[in-house]
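Re: [ENG-882] Designed sequences occasionally contain unexpected residues at chain ends

Forwarding the minimal case from QA. Structure tokens:
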């Protein structure tokens, strides 16, 4: 059983903000909800039942958080679909991101549509696209901080290129 109270006050506040953020990718919010419920003393089995998941999934999310903090919750290493961009387009996008350091997924989406004619209908699709390029675009900690100081959501500088 995972003991209650393992989150720092800062991590708890960040996770609650993420869980309440209606525009956050649904997968991030589900992971945040699970961790907040664990911190409230719920068992993995109870959280899994409440979220209609397997209790091993909850344990894996908990381990990801303990290992890498909020950044661990943003990784989705389960594969996924093939990229909608060619290798040449991906390289051009990487280069543009490195030069411009866009502040929002809207900017990235607009660039992809304008330059390549590819339209991403969801923010999570854009995040998956950028993650596939070797970066983790949405930083929950920064998003929570941005809500407090600004209405705009920021992308982290993509230093992994």
């Amino acid at each position: 059983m995972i003991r209650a109270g393992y989150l720092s006050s800062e991590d708890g506040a960040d996770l609650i903000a993420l869980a309440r953020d209606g525009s956050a990718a649904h997968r991030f919010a589900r992971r945040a909800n699970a961790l907040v419920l664990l911190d409230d003393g719920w068992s993995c089995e109870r959280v899994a039942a409440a979220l209609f998941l397997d209790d091993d999934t909850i344990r894996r999310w908990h381990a990801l958080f303990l290992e890498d903090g909020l950044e661990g919750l943003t990784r989705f290493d389960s594969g996924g679909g093939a990229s909608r961009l060619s290798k040449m387009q991906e390289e051009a996008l990487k280069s543009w991101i490195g030069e411009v350091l866009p502040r929002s997924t809207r900017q990235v989406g607009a660039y992809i549509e304008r330059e390549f004619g590819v339209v991403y209908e969801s923010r999570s699709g854009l995040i998956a696209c950028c993650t596939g390029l070797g970066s983790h675009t949405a930083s929950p900690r920064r998003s929570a901080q941005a809500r407090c100081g600004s209405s705009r959501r920021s992308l982290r500088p993509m230093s992994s290129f």
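QA comment: On inspection the terminal residues look reasonable. DSSP finds eight helices and no strands in the chain. Proposing we downgrade this to a documentation issue.
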